[in-house]
Structure formats: structure tokens, C-alpha cells
Automatic annotation (TrEMBL):
PANTHER family listed in its UniProt record: BNAC02G40300D PROTEIN (PTHR47074), REVERSE TRANSCRIPTASE-LIKE PROTEIN (PTHR47074:SF11)
InterPro entries listed in its UniProt record: RNase_H-like_dom_plant, RNase_H-like_EbsB-rel, RNaseH-like_sf, RNaseH_domain, RNaseH_sf
Superkingdom of origin: Eukaryota
Organism: Gossypium arboreum
Protein name per UniProt: RNase H type-1 domain-containing protein
Pfam families: RVT_3
């Protein structure tokens, strides 16, 4: 069983968004992650793009039991209730998420409180600001290690 936390951080002025994904194993240790900068139309779209990347990362790594955690109610509602009250451009990404989730043998996608998603938020925010170090996964900066420790995750060796 693994946990995949996803988050998007959107800049209304530039329309740039950071996408953050943090993967933990059943012991709570960070084992993988992903981050990137994308240009999107809204904060909601950044959340959907983050979830899309989280699902893709789980598929690439052949995770069979996954808990995808998001603090976006829009993502949660779309996946579980097929809430169609999203813009047409978001629907394309949302439908892609739903299709890819069918390829994950066993998963859950609970909506969590923002405070429980700080590691993915840190990654997304750093990418949005264009200041995330390239080696953030292999050599996490002290600011990220602090977030991981407050999130209840063991600090990297």
C-alpha cells in the first residue's frame, strides 16, 4: 500500500502553476515524487493536473494498492460523484484521471484537509515560484525536510 499526495499551486497573474506529487510507502517514508511547472487556466485545473500526474506516477511504478490524497474537493467530487460542474477544459483532464484510475487495481481517493497535504503543497509551491532544486527528491532541502517531519514522515537519511 502506498500514498500519493497531490497538490497544485496557481498564480492568477501569470497563469503558471506548480504541480506537486509526493509518494510514501506503507511506513510513511517518501519513496518517490514529481513536480513541474504548467500553464493552466485556473487553480482548479492545477489541482486536476496534479492528480493526473499522481495517477500516472502510480501507474508507471505499477503500484497496486494506492491511496491518492488531495485537498481539492473538486477533484474528489468529480472522481466519486461524477460532478460535471467543471469547465470544459477541466473535464478533459478529469475524464483522463477517471480512465487511468480504472487501471489501478485497488485505490481510494479521499479528500483531506489542506494541513495534511503540506509535502505536496511544498513541491507545488516551489515549482510555481521556479525555485525548486533539481535534486529535491534525492537530497531534500532542509525546508522540505522540516515539512516532511511535521507531516509525520520520517526524515530522509
Amino acid at each position: 500500500m502506498g500514498w500519493v499526495n497531490t497538490d497544485g499551486a496557481f498564480d492568477l497573474v501569470t497563469r503558471d502553476a506548480g504541480v506537486g506529487v509526493v509518494v510514501r510507502n506503507c511506513n510513511g517514508e517518501m519513496i518517490n515524487g514529481f513536480g513541474c511547472l504548467v500553464n493552466v487556466s485556473s487553480a482548479v485545473m492545477s489541482e486536476f493536473r496534479a492528480c493526473e500526474q499522481g495517477v500516472q506516477l502510480a501507474l508507471w511504478n505499477k503500484y497496486e494498492k494506492v491511496v491518492f490524497e488531495t485537498d481539492s474537493l473538486e477533484v474528489f467530487k468529480f472522481v466519486y460523484f461524477k460532478n460535471q460542474n467543471v469547465s470544459w477544459c477541466v473535464k478533459v483532464v478529469a475524464a483522463n484521471i477517471v480512465d487511468r484510475l480504472k487501471l489501478v487495481p485497488k485505490y481510494r481517493l479521499p479528500s483531506i484537509l489542506r494541513g495534511a497535504n503540506m509535502a505536496a503543497d511544498w513541491v507545488a509551491t516551489q515549482f510555481k515560484r521556479k525555485i525548486c532544486p533539481e535534486n529535491w527528491l534525492s537530497q531534500p532541502p532542509s525546508s522540505f525536510v522540516n515539512v516532511l517531519s511535521r507531516d509525520g514522515l520520517p526524515a530522509p537519511p
